[in-house]
Design a protein that fits this description.
Receptor-associated Protein, single chain, three-stranded antiparallel beta sheet
């Protein structure tokens, strides 16, 4: 998501300006329209976003903060005092600053939900919307408990995916480091030895020797190029057009597509369940969920669903129109939930079901990637060994 500066007008012709986080200008216009405003102009707030924007609060930190806040409020501790305790517990200076600013806003007369809404990068709309319901109904501890449970399940789901990818990433990084060390330290010495022998070298040997000499002379590129690539990727991720194209592309990759669909299905089901059970209307819950899913195709379906449900359509009938996004079992279970009046409970069961599906897929992913990596590493080692040993055999042959 990006932060935009905007100008907008309401029905009375009053002009307002401000900053808001959105996926794109179209998304920004939709958000303002939902609040009764018409977007006039918008531009990226580059000053506030910075280039890399390293300041962040992890999901685990937010999860622990909400859980601790729920316990303190249930025990009768005041909200400002609870925020002071959370500030002292956090080791993240950026998070400490935000918590103190939220406390000051509350002391000045703002509601907790209004204060959270000022920090969309740290507290997405699901936080402020659910807490707003808790403020209206006087059930803040219960709402916070629901929100904390939602974050805990989300954290476990993400941990499963990261855990499955950790081993392949470590192997790839180790392989790259070993390759660089060989090229920079070993190959140049072998290159000098081969030159002194004055023998004709195979093409693969010359290629490896040239690479080794190049990296030896321009070693600083080994540091600069990865940083440039990382910066370029970050810039691309901030481009709505690129993200849209990328999300559509991954839907066409067989194994990856299955994983992306299951992750987003689980996440959207859990988010909708948490919001609906927390007292948020289904239309608003769909709008909020559309802002939190990671894939553009899921976002488009949820935005469409929020508009159609607002007109009186059933959610299951709308979702059924997109079988390439949500699987049939999701639609069938959702339809049962609507007929029995237990939509939030059915959505929670669906989230748990697809959580298990993600676990199964990630386990298979690790078992598939491991032999492929072994083959790739074995091939690279064999190429290097043959390229270095072949000239030695040629030299021995000429000596007979």
């Amino acid at each position: 998501m990006a932060i935009y500066r905007y100008l907008a007008k309401n029905k009375e012709g009053e002009t307002i300006s401000g900053r808001k986080e959105a996926v794109s200008i179209r998304d920004l216009a939709q958000k303002l329209s939902n609040q009764g405003f018409l977007l006039i102009s918008a531009s990226l707030d580059r000053k506030k976003q910075g280039f890399l924007n390293l300041k962040r609060v992890s999901l685990k930190e937010k999860m622990m903060a909400i859980r601790n806040l729920q316990v303190m409020l249930a025990a009768g501790v005041s909200l400002p005092k609870s925020l002071d305790v959370l500030t002292s517990q956090s080791r993240n200076k950026y998070f400490q600053k935000i918590l103190q600013e939220i406390k000051e806003k509350i002391i000045q007369g703002n509601s907790f939900s209004e204060a959270l809404a000022e920090y969309p990068r740290v507290f997405p709309k699901i936080f402020s919307s659910m807490i707003k319901v808790g403020e209206k109904t006087g059930s803040m501890p219960d709402v916070l408990n629901t929100l904390a449970s939602h974050l805990e399940k989300d954290f476990r789901l993400r941990s499963k995916v990261k855990g499955a990818l950790m081993y392949p990433m470590i192997v790839v990084i180790a392989m790259i480091l070993i390759g660089v060390v060989m090229l920079v330290l070993v190959v140049p010495k072998l290159s000098e030895a081969f030159k002194s022998l004055n023998i004709e070298l195979p093409k693969t040997t010359r290629l490896i020797m040239n690479l080794g000499n190049y990296f030896k002379d321009y070693w600083y590129l080994l540091l600069a190029v990865p940083l440039l690539i990382a910066g370029f990727i970050i810039l691309l991720k901030r481009s709505p057009k690129f993200k849209n194209s990328w999300d559509r592309f991954v839907f066409k990759i067989p194994f990856v597509s299955s994983l992306i669909k299951k992750i987003n299905t689980a996440y959207s089901a859990r988010t909708l369940s948490s919001l609906i059970s927390g007292g948020v209307s289904i239309v608003e819950a769909l709008q909020i969920t559309s802002e939190t899913v990671s894939n553009e195709k899921f976002r488009e379906v949820l935005i469409r669903a929020s508009k159609e449900v607002k007109k009186g359509e059933k959610l299951s009938s709308i979702i059924a129109q997109f079988p390439e996004v949500y699987p049939p079992v999701f639609v069938q279970m959702l339809e049962v939930g609507e007929e029995t009046g237990q939509t939030s409970k059915v959505l929670l069961r669906l989230a748990e079901f697809f959580d298990e599906e993600v676990t199964s897929v990630t386990q298979n992913l690790a078992s598939i990637i491991e032999p492929i990596l072994l083959l790739v590493i074995g091939g690279i080692i064999a190429l290097f060994a043959v390229s270095m040993i072949k000239p030695i055999y040629s030299m021995i042959g000429t000596m007979h």
